[in-house]
Amino acid sequence: MSPGDRCLAEISSLQRASRAKLRMRIGFALLLHVAARICFSRTAKIQTQSMSRSRRLTTRPHLPHRKRSGWRINCPGLSSTSRCRHSRRAHKPPEREKKFASYIVSKTMKKHHFSLFRLLGSAFIFQIVLSINVFAEIKRDYGTYPVPPAPPLPAAGGTIIDPTFETTIMRLTDANDGPDCVNAYSYWPTFNINNTRLLVHSGVSPLLYRFDPVNFTIIDKAVWDTPTPIGGSVGWEDAIWSGSDPDVIYAHDNIGMHLWAYNAATQTYTLIADFTSRYNPGDYLWQMSKSIKNDNVFAFTRRDRRYSVAGYLVWKRDTNQVIYDVNTTQLDEVQVDKSGRYLAVKTGQQGAGAIEVQVVDLKTLAVENLTDNGPDYAPGHSDNGNKIVIGADNWNNQVTYRTLANPHSFYPLINYRDDWTQDYHVSMLANNEKWVLLSSYSPTDGTPDGPFHDEIYQVATDGSGSVRRVAHHFSIYGGDYYASPRADISRDGHLVAFTSNWGVEGGRKDVFILKIP
Hints:
31% strand; 2 helices; 4-stranded antiparallel β-sheet; globular
């Protein structure tokens, strides 16, 4: 697509958004108009009916006495005889008549006002639903949406509307925060359990944000440079927020084999575990994984003083025991599932017949080996859910779903067929596991337009092939790992953090927060 065509596409997108806003405003105005008409027409009618009723009740005592025949009253001037029941209300004293009439009108109007409030409340709810549908109608097709020119950036805290998908994106960081700001990775959470705290890196030091998810605003931020009680700092990249306490984040230090819980509110550390005496001097922890549901099972890669991989271990907090410990140099990483029952071991081996992934049942210690090629097509880039793993089948160009209890069986979620131009990362951090978040990027320049190129999108995990396409990330990879978006989703599934150089290859990187309707 030429620059002129992209410009026209952007203008067309903005025009559609403007027309949608206008339709929404007109629709809400009509709702209010109808409600007002109903209000005033019913008010006038009820006032008339109430006054007529009160007049009938207060004028009956002044009727001339006429001969009664049973329950009938014969009145001169009437062509028929009216049936009327005498009651105490018809004989009220004259001095109470006005108060009685006012009471009838007041009681009737209160009932009517309650109905009016219900009507206006329904109109307001309808307006909210209409706003969601107008401004964030999720695209669910497999069409090609070329990346338009990146919209102008606001300062940190400002927002942008994605010109293609019409979702809201906040710029979380800018040059005032650091030279290159990034989120960690697709399975290391930026967001705490309730989205009130965020963790990113400025290019110089880690930053802890306080965030208002309701109003979608930044409250404040602080550099996380608090030393541990024994000195030294902690690793930020694989730090993981607690699954129960919104103020606590777990991290290991850089001077030994200590696991810490850091309280961001009190800025204090608590030592959770010390593995120093168990291993060789100079060994240290690397690439932590944790059962995010219960903060009970932790897994680590172990490296030696020469920075080489020496093995991996799994520690269980409630028993304070290392429950699985392997010495090996053939390792990429280890990942615990959300429940803490299973461990996915990425061996780093690839090719036909190679065992790329091992699945360990941490209760029985049984191990299942998954081949890189068939029949298993082991998951490459992947993330674990609750006893499941979703990842890339690098032989058939598809994303697969499998349970960790039966990892040899799987089914595809999405297949990219002959389009091998995209790499992507996987995030299963959301509590709702009906959708998996993917963030794709073009590893080489000059990649032609195609479905899901340079996008952030969700794919249904039921095998239906349903998709929800939510944003372009506007980042140009250019061989820079940290320029890939590596999007990670919040626990409630409504926010996504990602990194982007915003259309400038080799340019500064910032962290952005995408709001998913």
